[in-house]
Amino acid sequence: MLEGKSDSVVLKGIGASPGVVIGPAFLLDYHKVKILKRQIEKGEIDQEKQRFENAVSEAANQIKQLIAEIPEEFREHSGIFETYLLMLKDRMVYDRTLKLISEEQINAEWALNNALDYVRELFEQVKDPYIRERFEDIKYAVRRVQKLLSGSPAADFSQLEKPVILVAHDLSPADTIQMAKEKILAFVTDMGSRTSHTAILGRSLGLPAVVGLENATSSIFSGETLIVDGLCGDVVVNPDDELLRHYGEKQEDYVRYRLDVIQYSNLPAETQDGFRFKIKANIEFIEEISSVISNGAEGIGLYRTEVMYLAHKELPIEEELFLAYQEVVERMSPFPTTIRTLDIGGDKFLSSVSQDDESNPALGLRAIRLCLKESNLFRTQLRAILRASAYGDVRMLFPLVSGKSEIIQVKEHLEKTRNELRREEIPFDEDIKTGIMIEVPSAVLLADVLAREVDFFSIGTNDLIQYSLAIDRGNEYVAHLYEPLHPGVLRMIYRTIEAAHEAGIEVAVCGEMAGEPMYLPVLIGMGLDELSMNALDIPKIKRMIRMSNQNRCSALVRDILECSTAQKIREHLLDFLTSDFPGEFDLSHGLFPDFVGREAILGPLMTEMKGNALNRRLG
Q: What digits encode the pLDDT tens for the residues 318-341?
């Protein structure tokens, strides 16, 4: 938090949904439920248990009613509320609450609160932000029960008379959907991340959002003027005139920019000298498909399938997986859907699969290694994917492959699964394409060998960079060393693309590099075939591809592959961007017209420029 000479304060959070808005704050504090501990007599235990069970049943009825009343345009989000119904009966919370009522002779509210604290402690031990975010789903379901037990009122947005910026500790997807969109300018929350359901719905609704502020509800009062910058995660409280002018200009610039780039959504991603690229989207949730389609994706390049395994205590059955995959495939048809098999392990855990503690889980039993060990788990997912392939163009992607022996084992499981479906006369695509993710150095070194075994490569730059440079991105002491422009990383990407093309197969990039404009000339120049990214990034990437010259980009790549440091590569790249994309990367103002991800583009230089500018404005 930065304080200036005026009352202006800048709060730093996570930009969850892009856009810049200025307006009055409206503080929601309905989430606070006063919970008191009360000892009960033995004769009251059954009565208290019944009170808890009645509250759970009533909460379930409320959620079912919500599902029934969801407007048609948000019908695709109903699956989120089905998840809440399951959370109401989650054994870690439900059974533990009943047990605490009996054993400690305490009232239902206090027992439920203690059960929730127990679950929170379990989730806090997990590093993965996506899994930690699933605790918010449990908390939402518990909060509904707590309100019923305590008699607290539900959220009421009807009192809003004019457009406001909602400020809350957290907003559930149910809250988000119930908002009158014409009265909501944006929302900011203490909790949340870009992977939360609420953030995804915010993007779907087109509402700018900043989440993970931690202290928004304690720093902001209703009626105060706010600036919400969902592009970089800033929330300015009580901005002075200079800040209002600055963000007003940025707001206008962004609106003009979005109106400009959205025109490129449905245009082909083709360079000025005639080189064509496939642009696809990465998804985790079915709810993202509408955004995928509206932003002009030519298919799904990476469907992360972990959500159905992590959202429930029990493993999903084949039919559950099949129905989810079928819906995605049918909605994306005739475009292809690339389904990645379970990429789980390390600090992503499955409670239903026995795993010993590992001293170094990131290098342990995870992804394809776990699937090959737990063959029933693997074969269930293979059956579901194959069955879904009868309903559209499906491609199967296997993560964290390190050598040929793993591919051989995968093929054996795949053929056995195919034979099972043939015997059962269940239709599937006999010619389904299979590929592997290139994420570890050994796969790069063996790329020529592996390319002869599969139909395509997909380079996962996030893990490839992490494993190649021995960098834990979540470790604050070494995260600054995570460098996509490291010469070793770029040479590995280049080598992988060369090996794939020599074998006659296509290669995609599906990591964060794919959606960053700065890295695009490098990837174009290396000659890859496909980019897969967050759907919101697609229009700006298509726009930049259509401004590019592939031969010029190839010359750039030849130059930077001769560089021995990331700093030299960055200098070459910035010179290239300035000369080939004049006006697109405006360094003089410390802003890029593409806005999103600019800190990642310039690293320390951009951070310093932005910090100096902001400090000057705040005095």
A: 999 999 999 999 999 999 999 999
Query: What's at 136, amino acid-wise?
Result: E
Residue 393 amino acid letter? D
CATH of the domain at 100: 1.10.274.10
Instruction: Write the pLDDT tens digit of every residue in 293-318.
Output: 989 999 999 998 887 776 666 788 99
Angle between helices 108-124 and 91-104 (to 10 degrees): 130
* DSSP codes of every residue in 106-140: B-HHHHHHHHHHHHHHHHHT---HHHHHHHHHHHH
Q: How far apart are CA 451 and CA 456, in angstroms?
A: 7
The answer on 191 and 77 residing in a single domain is no
Neighbouring-strand partners of residue 22: 227
Q: Which two tokens stand for residue 411?
A: 């093929």
CA atoms within 13 A on the CB side of 505: 23
Domain identity same for 333 and 469: yes
- Answer whether 354's CB lies under 8 Å from 319's CB: no
pLDDT at 53: 86
- How many C-beta atoms lie closer than 10 Å to residue 219's C-beta? 16
Per the domain annotation, does 619 fall within a domain? Answer: no
Q: What is the dihedral of CA 341, 342, 345, 346, to 10 degrees?
A: 60
Structural domain contains residue 36 = no
The torsion angles phi and psi of 276, rounded to 5 degrees, stand at -105, 135
pTM: 0.68
3-state secondary structure 45-72: HHHHHHHHHHHHHHHHHHHHHHHHHCCH
Provide the residue range defining the domain that includes 92: 43-150
Where is mean pLDDT largest: 85-94, 210-219, 570-579, 609-618? 570-579
Q: How many CB atoms lie within 10 A of CB 470?
A: 8
CA distance 230 to 22: 11
Tokens of 227: 């600036």
Where among 211, 230, 261 does a domain terminate?
261
User: SS3 for 456?
Assistant: strand
Active site residues: 197, 510
pLDDT for res 597 = 38
Q: Mean per-residue pLDDT for 136-158?
A: 69
Q: Are 140 and 84 in contact (CB under 8 A)?
A: yes
Is the separation of the CB atoms in 157 and 178 below 8 Å? Answer: yes
Task: Decide if 98 contacts 50 (C-beta within 8 A).
Answer: no
Our CA angle for 181, 186, 192, nearest 5°, is 115
> Do strands 269-270 and 276-283 pair parallel, antiparallel, or not at all (unpaired)?
antiparallel
Tell me the sheet residues that pair with 10: 2, 236
Cα separation, 465 vs 473, whole angstroms: 10
